[in-house]
Amino acid sequence: LLWSGGYTGVKAALPFIAPINMLAVRYAIVVALLAVAFVILRPPLPKSAAEWRHLAMTGLLIQGLYFLCMNLAMWMGVPAGVLAIILSPQPILVALVVPHLAGESVPGRVWAGLLLGLAGAVIVVAARSGVGPTSIPGILTGIAGLLAITAGTLYEKRFGIGQHPVTANLVQGSVGLLLALPLALAIEDVSIRWTGQFVAAMGYLVLANSIVAMTLLLAMIRYGAAARVSALFFLVPPSASLIAWGVLGEEMPPLAFAGMAVAATGVL
């Protein structure tokens, strides 16, 4: 639910800020909050250059490239629910690669659940196919985001080492900021219209998405089977569509609710 709400948060903030600048502001706030937490809690730091490098790479792939692609795709006009649906193959991609990369087996029952989850996501996208035209550049940007988060999940599973969440999020948020800030300054108008909607959306993206949801995701990847953890992403398209329907008024056809039930059954 925390992850799914991020799509609506981005969509709600976009009328008031450019997409890359939004990411830069988001990570500037994340880094500022976590820097204060770091000073207070004094968590342990990574013990080697390799651990620093692994944290930074996961941050680049997920906090940097994935969220950058999501912001840009929605700015190009892709509906929040449709963008979430683009993520649907992510668990299948992880399940295909993880046996070779991390030595995890993916049993037949898990494959059945993955395929059922994908079927549910397909039902949702079919139900929403009449919502309106979607830009091809936006779709391609969303696919790039799909590849980034899949690579980030696999990289974290292969190389990630348990780190204090304040340390991990501070390092990875800093990487996201270092990616977004120069791009925003170079190519975008960095002005912001400070409205109540923008502040609420940014607060959600910072606290619920970038700090809490990312901490939970990385913990689950480290301590659970990557394919099973990724299967939770089958719940993102229906949940994001439902939240966007309730908050943004995006269309939610009746058939989409059936797709939500099928996806949830696959995850179960």
Gist of the model:
The chain has helices at residues 2-13, 19-41, 49-75, 80-86, 90-101, 108-127, 136-159, 165-187, 196-223, 226-231, 236-248, 254-267. It has 268 residues and is mainly alpha-helical.
Taking pLDDT < 50 over at least 5 consecutive residues as the criterion, the unreliable ranges are: none
Q: Helix amount, in percent?
A: over 70%
Q: Terminal Cα separation, in Å? A: 16 Å
Shape: globular
Total count of strands: 0
What is the N-to-C succession of helices and strands? HHHHHHHHHHHH
Task: Tell me the strand percentage band.
Answer: under 5%
Question: What value does the Rg take, in angstroms?
Answer: 18 Å
Average pLDDT: 85
User: So how many helices?
Assistant: 12
Largest sheet: none
Helix and strand composition category: mainly alpha
Name its key features:
268 residues; 78% helix; mainly alpha
Description:
- The protein has helices at 2-13, 19-41, 49-75, 80-86, 90-101, 108-127, 136-159, 165-187, 196-223, 226-231, 236-248, 254-267.
- The chain has twelve helices and no strands.
- The mean pLDDT is 85.
- The two termini are 16 Å apart.
Element layout with pairings:
Blueprint: H1 2-13, H2 19-41, H3 49-75, H4 80-86, H5 90-101, H6 108-127, H7 136-159, H8 165-187, H9 196-223, H10 226-231, H11 236-248, H12 254-267
